[in-house]
Amino acid sequence: MVPAGFAHGFSTLEPDKRVAYKVSDVWVPDVERAIRWDDPALAIDWQLPPGGPTLSGKDAVAPLFADQPDLF
Fold this sequence. Notes:
This protein has one helix and no strands. Helix content is 6%, strand content 0%. The chain is largely without helices or strands and 72 residues long. The longest helix is centred in the last third of the chain and has 4 residues, at 57-60. It has one helix at 57-60. The two termini are 20 Å apart.
């Protein structure tokens, strides 16, 4: 379980997969945040296939972690 307020991300290792997850409350777009998936400061090894990831529009333009507003 990912605690409320913590960043989380998903990567599948097979093509054409869907990810479903349970949330603790209704979605409120005005408070949603995103962190750039390939932020070099985070150095996450996503083990991506050749050709790279398929991203949502929101994730494709997400800012770096260091550029996030103070969330707390």
